[in-house]
Each structure stands twice: as C-alpha cells, then as structure tokens.
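## retry 2 of 3
previous attempt timed out at serialization; input unchanged, resubmitting
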Amino acid sequence: MIHRKVLLLLFLIGLSILGLARFDARANQTIIKVPLDYPTIQEAIDHANPGDTVSVSAGTYYENLYINKNLTLTGENAETTIINGVGGWYGIEVNSSSVTITGFTIVNATLGIYLYKSTGCIVSHNNITTSHIRVGQDEGIWLYASNDSVAISNIVHDVGWRGIVLCGYSSEDSVTLNTVKDCGTGIAVSGKDNFICHNNFVNNQNQTEILDPPHYYNIWNNTNEGNYWSDYKGADANQDGIGNTPYIIGANNTDYHPLMGMYLQFEIASQAQTYTVTTICNSTITNFAYGTPSAGEISFNTTGSDGTNGFCRIVIPTALFAPDCPILVDGSPPLTRNNLPLSNSTYTYIYFTFANTTHKIIVVPEFPTTLALLIIALVIPATLAITKRRLKPEHSGAKPRPPQN
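## retry succeeded, writing output
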C-alpha cells in the first residue's frame, strides 16, 4: 500500500515538473529588449528561443548580425534604430525560415540584408545603403535560394552594385512597395513566378537585370498597375496615371501597366477602422496626414519642378469620402479633376492636375463632420428659441378685454 502511494506521489510530481516545463517554454516565447535585457542585438538573438521577438530601442549598434532561428527582429523606428556593419560583409545574415526583420536603418556593410536558403521570411520597412563598400559586390537586399518570402516597404539607395536581388533560383517571392534609387542596378532576378509590383525604381544606372536562365517568367504588374520606372518614356493619353505602352524588361518579363509617377501607400484610421489611401504622382509627396488641420480631411504637400505640369491620382475609401468630394490645391480647385472608371463601391479613383511648384493638397469630405456638428450646435438652440417665443403669451401691461357677446 505504501509502495503504491509512493508511486502515485512520484507520478504527480512528474506531471507537475512537466507542466512547469511547458509553462516555462511558453513563457520563453516572449519579447527580449535591447539594450534593457542584453546590451547587443546579437546577444539577444543568441539567447532567444524560436518564436521570440527581439525588440531593439533607438540607437546605433555596431554589429554584424547572424540569425539561425525563426524569430522577429524589430527596431523602434527605422530612422533612429541603426545597424552599422562596421565595413563587414553582412548587416544581417539569415539562415532560417520564418524570420521577420522590420524597422532598421542598415549602413556600412557590403550586403545589407542577406537571406540564405530561407523560406517564408519578411523584410519590411527598412532603410538600407551600403555606402559603396566593396563596389561591384555590394547589394541591398539579397535573397539566395529563398522562396515564399516578402520584401515590402523598404527603401534601398546608393548601393554600388544591385539594390534588390533574387538569385539562386529564388521563386514565388513577393517584392512590393519598395523604393530603389541611385543604385548600380535596381533589381536583379534569376528565379521564376516572383511577384514584383508597386515598386519605385528611380535613377538607377540599370533598372533591371535578368540573370540566367532568361526564359523564366515573373509577374511585374497586377490587373491594373505595375511599377514606376524613372526611365519610362511612354505616354498616358487617357490620364489615369498608367502608361499606355508596356515597359520591356526581358524575355518573358514585361511590366504591362507601368506607372507615370511614384507609387505611395498610406494607412489612415477612423472610428476603430483602418483604411488604405494610395497615390501615383509625378511630384514629391511629403507631410501626408489625416485629420489635420481639420477632422476628416486628407492633406499633403507636393513639390515639383516649376514650369512643368503636375498630376496626382489618389485612391480614397468611399466609407470616408463621397465620390464628388472637393479637392483643393492651395485652397482652389485643381486645373482638371476626373473620377476614373476604376472607381467602385469601396474606393474612388480621382485624377487631378496642377501647375508644378510647391502646393498644399487637401481632400475634403463632402460634408465634413466638424461642419455638421457646428451646424447642429447653431440650429438646435435657434430652433428652440423661436419655438419658445411663439408659445409665450404677449404682455402689453393692459388688462385683457372681456369677450364681446
């Protein structure tokens, strides 16, 4: 009997230890902070468990990072969280699947972010320049034999050789919403079935390079839109922001809907909902804001070369803006304004023009919320006052006369 009780006790202790171990394993899948928990990013990566998040505070970190486990590496702010590769080969090297890297500026490394045989990774919202270290070998984002990965919303600039590279037959990757400028080559591709759309390729010596085998097919546009190529010479006869002739990249590689201006995407929030606003514009857009200076309005600045014609195609959600909502350029209507046939029940596509210089653009709701509240605040008290006045009996100081028979 005692022997049986001892066995039962040992069994319960074993279950307790196993439960604690499982609890500890779950607890370890947590957020590791740099420099709060570890002074360097690499130390935090080395001590992280698969699935952890390494969160890096703003600052400059002189490191060459190596990631060999699935985790998320996130910077506090891409402009102020800086990885300086101190002249080494890699800013960040990844040899693992399911790694996310977001929110960093990476400088002073031959290869900014290098994915080696890594599947299902995400590289987003990073600012990368190699400072022309090892010219002819430097690359911004390099995917080698890495499939089903995503490079989105990165800025790659001033790279001596190639800005973004998909090689080693990297296939079925997605490259979207990136800006690649002032590089030797904008993007080089050797794989197939990659989706490359809504990127801006600006002032690169060579915009594209198709590596062997050249017959592989990649997708360079969606149904209506492709990429912006600063050397595109086509026209836009129907004024919708999309070129009328394709941009030829190579055999089996063509952008059939090249953009006439840089493509930008913004997220705006209203009443616990998030909406997307996109622009195609041949002027530089800055200071995009929603809800300032007035509630419900979109505002942004445009800057272009004086004496040239500027245009902007903006796509706005119908949940917040009526299709015929006013658009103001420095407080006045634009030179021309057209709602495009692509408009639907969810989004309105608007194309408008202006003489290029520096402008303040405001998109006004058809009936702004602040104006509605102001009208209500004025009308209701006035209505009540008039009603009370009509109901109140008149007093002249004389006694009322009796009715005449």
